[in-house]
């Protein structure tokens, strides 16, 4: 039995009330072929064969159209076979990228950038972050500066908005600082470093390149440790196993930095929990950032310390480390590998710090540099040619004409005090 349904024809008497019969099912003798004559008021005429695909089994006493579609044996067999067997797995090829007739070159898979360096008393591990893109961290080492074995300069640079500023600072800042230092006496070391930073910033801005860089540098000069920074790269020293931060991060959350920016007409606000200048940058000092130069200055903060025996090692690192690892944690990781052990392995400790930061969710580039200050102290002491020994109570003063340096041995400790000109005849100890 087939189900018969009436097809609607405009103005057809079959659909005029009240003569519309009820829809019913009845046997249909055979499919009707050829066109039917419509009602006098109808203007439509088409063969039923054209409707067989979408109106099966059409029949009505009053309707001008009637058709019936019977299931064939082939259809019944097909439906039975589909019920019994699962269709085969379709192997659909991956569609090619739309190249409009041009072959799209495959992009090479970028490798993770890792740098591991072991030098004369210093160790570096630098690794690109998980956020992808170009590695923006850089570092620099300038040992035996100006042919002086007791003089060295170390730096870590964290770029933002691209690596150009960090690259430039790593190449130029050391030279600019040492040029200033060599032309000044010890009293002008802080000024020399300040001028070196400002000169590097001016030279970079002349290139009209976007981006900027945070910097931290450590200068070993005339028995002093001189640490400077702009931005959120940080220097931490181990003093008898206790962490001591030698720099302070320059961020908009610092009250003095916020006040300085607002006094210059800028503003600081919080964007998704991060304080930013003009809604843009999360640091308040650095090299570059020409579009924010009015507020983002390149003037560093500097701290000078006399190198003492309890100064064990120094850590310079980008914020990729400090955002996830505390100062004391960093010291605790490195201390067992470079203090009081026969076999030193500070490089492995630097790698551990990088991995520790990554394991805690850091996606930023991370650079860690450690420097053994004990080695530097040994260089200073071993370079002295002792000529005179003067006893003053419990103090012994040893004087050298080879380097013009004076050091004091007091209660079993050797302390480097200051440098004297070769012509000086002083026998006293300066602090």
UniProtKB/TrEMBL annotation:
Keywords in alphabetical order, please: Hydrolase, Magnesium, Manganese, Metal-binding, Protein phosphatase
- The PPM-type phosphatase domain covers which part of the protein? 121-373
Instruction: Return the protein name.
Output: protein-serine/threonine phosphatase
Query: Looking at its record, which EC class is this enzyme?
Result: hydrolase
- GO annotation terms (biological process): abscisic acid-activated signaling pathway
To which species is this protein native?
A: Salix brachista
GO MF annotation terms: metal ion binding; protein serine/threonine phosphatase activity
**Mind telling me which Pfam families this protein's record contains?**
PP2C
Family membership: Belongs to the PP2C family.
Q: What is its EC number?
A: 3.1.3.16
